[in-house]
Amino acid sequence: MNIAFFLIPKKDIVYLKEGATMRQALERMEYHSYSAVPLINGEGKYVGTITEGDLLWKLKNTPGLTFENTEDIFLSSVEQHVQNVPVTIDAQMEDLISRAVVQNFVPVVDDQQTFIGIVRRREMIEYCSKLLLQKKA
To answer: What is the pLDDT of residue 87?
Structure first.
């Protein structure tokens, strides 16, 4: 099975640029009810995943930082505590599944490491479920 079948393209997902502010991240994550979003640089390369936890740790460990002044903190300065390793579009299904065990989504990049989208764990579970049901029938 080709993972492109599961790909949600970049144009259809929420992501942030590393030049975005912490406040923008908080507001976008709240609006969409996401706990993590992909982070890309100015060249469109995947540079990591920013999580609610990352933002909370930054808030806790930065003296004087309040919600009001999070607009002064760029995401490039927020430490990422979880490294969601991307796969390339030609990755095998086994690569996806092994990452999905610990990630809600798997970032997908092209051969130049340009971010092209994600594969969500939900679609992988649904696919595996259908396979199991077919084997029972």
So the answer is: 93
